[in-house]
């Protein structure tokens, strides 16, 4: 959904270069004219180099938008081949890759060099990220709130998961499920929360058979995810390395009016004013939260829809489109 929404937001005549661990795309975006170049089939780094250079030579455009999970290869390439990028506007979306820059001065060098030589701009998807980038010397940084996926939420497909009406149903998805099972579950007596039903989407079998855990080992589609978030009372988020990392699942939750159980900092703190969930600091406060929830049995119907409306407006694709096209 992020890829589709990002492409849809680009209204001008520009080149989008997108690369993560699963695929690489280079697109010439000219209104609705999208032209895919390739997808990853071999070594990731070599493919990034090959496709980026190919697209740079193929698409003679002024505006380049880079969304990449790597902070080094593309800045180094633009420095090495900087004559090709003189008088170009290059915008770099820092998505899940800010933490290394904050921790290490050495890891900032490629981006620093690129921003000195060329007209580099940086886009952060959380407010905390923008502040952090400014604090380490990247002054050409803009904050554009990560878009939600409400335009896709109408597509939903029923999944074989039970959501008992007499219990509070908390769903754990992706990295959230993995972290909870591996780091939190062994430290707590989860069966003591007899009014809470923990729906955990995790492919490896949980060792102990616990009555109030419903484990789903099968992979679910985006359509099934939308259905699950439309039924669950809460979606859980862990607190490991989330200070600067935006959460796509958080936006999925907002899109489906699903309250959250989340850390009270990072991307999640930006939703606290809307009162769309419950927040914690550490494992001790999380246990207190579970205990109170087990007693109150507060469910999604108890949350006012106004909070979700505000959150959706702040993270709307229209808002993202206006802001990103004013920056790049």
Features:
alpha/beta, 328 residues, single chain, 13 helices, six-stranded parallel beta sheet, 37% helix
Description:
The protein is of the alpha/beta class and 328 residues long. It is built from 13 helices and 13 strands. It has a seven-stranded mixed beta sheet with strand order 3-2-1-4-5-6-7. The longest helix is centred in the first third of the chain and has 15 residues, at 44-58. The radius of gyration is 21 Å and the shape is elongated. Mean pLDDT is 85; it is low at 30-41.
Outline:
With 328 residues, this protein is an alpha/beta fold.
- Please give the radius of gyration in angstroms: 21 Å
Intertermini distance? 21 Å
Q: How many DSSP helices?
A: 13
The SS-based structural class is alpha/beta
Question: For the residues shown, what is the average pLDDT?
Answer: 85
Topology, number of strands:
13
Helix content: 25-40%
Uncertain residue segments? 30-41
The secondary-structure element order is HEEEHEHHEHHEHEEHEEHEHEEHHH
What percentage of amino acids are in beta strands?
15-25%
Q: How would you characterize the largest beta sheet? A: 7 strands, mixed
Shape: elongated
């Amino acid at each position: 959904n992020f890829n589709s929404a990002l492409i849809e937001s680009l209204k001008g005549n520009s080149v989008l270069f997108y690369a993560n661990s699963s695929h690489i795309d280079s697109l010439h975006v000219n209104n609705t004219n999208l032209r895919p170049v390739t997808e990853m089939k071999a070594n990731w780094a070599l493919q990034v180099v090959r496709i980026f250079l190919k697209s740079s030579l193929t698409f003679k455009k002024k505006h380049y938008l880079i969304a990449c999970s790597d902070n080094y290869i593309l800045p180094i390439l633009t420095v090495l081949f900087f004559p090709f990028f003189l008088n170009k506007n290059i915008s770099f979306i820092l998505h899940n890759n800010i933490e290394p820059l904050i921790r290490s001065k050495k890891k900032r060098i490629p981006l620093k060099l690129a921003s000195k030589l060329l007209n580099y701009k940086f886009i952060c998807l959380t407010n905390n990220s923008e502040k952090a980038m400014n604090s380490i010397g990247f002054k050409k940084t803009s904050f554009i709130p990560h878009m939600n996926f409400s335009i896709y939420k109408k597509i939903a497909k029923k999944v074989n998961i039970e959501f008992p009406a007499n219990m509070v149903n908390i769903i754990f998805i992706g990295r959230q499920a993995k972290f909870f099972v591996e780091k939190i579950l062994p430290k707590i007596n989860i069966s003591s929360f007899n009014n809470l039903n923990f729906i955990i989407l995790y492919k490896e079998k949980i060792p102990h058979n616990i009555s109030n855990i419903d484990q789903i080992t099968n992979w679910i589609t985006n359509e099934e995810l939308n259905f699950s978030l439309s039924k669950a009372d809460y979606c859980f988020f862990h607190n490991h390395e989330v200070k600067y990392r935006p959460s796509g699942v958080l936006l999925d939750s907002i899109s489906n009016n699903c309250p959250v159980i989340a850390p009270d900092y990072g991307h999640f703190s930006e939703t606290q004013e809307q009162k769309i969930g419950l927040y914690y600091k550490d494992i001790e406060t999380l246990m207190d939260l579970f205990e109170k929830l087990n007693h109150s049995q507060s469910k999604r119907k108890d949350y006012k829809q106004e909070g979700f409306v505000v959150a959706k407006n702040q993270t709307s694709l229209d808002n993202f489109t206006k802001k990103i096209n004013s920056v790049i």
